[in-house]
């Protein structure tokens, strides 16, 4: 569905990463982990075509990304950027309808089908009861689900999310993670960036660890997200003493004598 082959990416005059390969397939969740400044957002923008590849290639459905017109890309891949807030008090339905832009002309108004698709997107995420509520009167998690619904209104086959749980409380993080798994269950490919290895371990099928623009490790999440790799990724000691039912719980070590110190 989305594939990067020997990708070099960055900004004009500045390369952020190189030699990167990955694949996102239908029904799969891929977690992208790495420290701040490691290139995660730059990589997402390159996979979307918002930044041109400096080398290698990004492919969408087997064709070079550059062979797709922008509206065609938008109809296949949805994007939820990080830290996006609305200045205006749009309702949830109005926000989601903005995702129909890829299917409309520059001056076209949403029609009956667009309204149906928007309502379906809200219903898929279980937030149709918020349809007429202003985004300013929602919790952080509810607003994030509205932004995901907006991406779904594009009727994409894949969704890329940049730190979808940033600044959300514990309960709202759970709302978003459940939504990501539900979308994969419907056959969408989902790639999300995160700083939380526990989210990756529980929600993703595969993981890619990115440090200074280079892949430190990639593969099945149970094999890749482990204490040794996290120590190398973040340059910090890690406590993986375990959680319920033997599942690992990864925590940064902050007390002497814990996690082998």
UniProtKB/TrEMBL annotation:
<comment type="similarity">
    <text>Belongs to the ABC transporter superfamily.</text>
</comment>
<keyword id="KW-0067">ATP-binding</keyword>
<keyword id="KW-0547">Nucleotide-binding</keyword>
<protein>
    <submittedName>
        <fullName>ABC-type cobalamin/Fe3+-siderophore transport system, ATPase component</fullName>
    </submittedName>
</protein>
<dbReference type="InterPro" id="IPR003593">
    <property type="entry name" value="AAA+_ATPase"/>
</dbReference>
<dbReference type="InterPro" id="IPR003439">
    <property type="entry name" value="ABC_transporter-like_ATP-bd"/>
</dbReference>
<keyword id="KW-0813">Transport</keyword>
<keyword id="KW-1003">Cell membrane</keyword>
<dbReference type="GO" id="GO:0016887">
    <property type="term" value="F:ATP hydrolysis activity"/>
</dbReference>
<keyword id="KW-0472">Membrane</keyword>
<keyword id="KW-1278">Translocase</keyword>
<dbReference type="Pfam" id="PF00005">
    <property type="entry name" value="ABC_tran"/>
</dbReference>
<comment type="function">
    <text>Part of the ABC transporter complex HmuTUV involved in hemin import. Responsible for energy coupling to the transport system.</text>
</comment>
<dbReference type="InterPro" id="IPR017871">
    <property type="entry name" value="ABC_transporter-like_CS"/>
</dbReference>
<dbReference type="GO" id="GO:0005524">
    <property type="term" value="F:ATP binding"/>
</dbReference>
<dbReference type="InterPro" id="IPR027417">
    <property type="entry name" value="P-loop_NTPase"/>
</dbReference>
<feature type="domain" description="ABC transporter">
    <location>
        <begin position="2"/>
        <end position="237"/>
    </location>
</feature>
